[in-house]
Design brief:
Elements: E1 9-13, H1 17-29, E2 33-37, H2 40-48, E3 55-59, H3 68-78, E4 84-88, E5 103-107, H4 112-122
Helix pairs in contact: 1-4, 2-3
Amino acid sequence: MGYAAMPGKVLLVEDEVLISGLVAEALSDEGFEVFAVETADAALTYLQTGGDADVLFTDINLPGEIDGAALAVEARKLRPELPIVYTSGRFIAAEVAPLVPRSVFVAKPYDPLEVCTLISRLTPTHH
C-alpha cells in the first residue's frame, strides 16, 4: 500500500435499521469507514470518547434524549469543523430550526449513492 488518502470516516445516525443498512453498505462500497448508531445519545458518546469521524450523517427524528438537530449542535461544540448532513422524512430544511452553519439537508427518500457523492465532496481525505 502506498500513501494514498485514507477513506473518510462517517458517523451514521439512523434509527431505521433498513435505511441504516443500505446507507452503510453504499458508503462502505465507496471506500468509507462507517460507524453506525441508532440514537443521537450514542453518537454523542462516541464523539465525546474520542471516536473518529470526518462527516456526521444524521436523521433528525431519533429516539432518546436528544434528536439529530441537537446532536449537530453538540457535535459542533466538540468538533467545530465537522461537516454535517441532516436527513428527514418528516421535515423539510426550512422547518428545522436552525441548521448549524456549513451543513447540508437531504430529504427522505434519498438515493444512497447520491448521499455517497455528497459525503465524498464534504470529506477532504476521500478521493
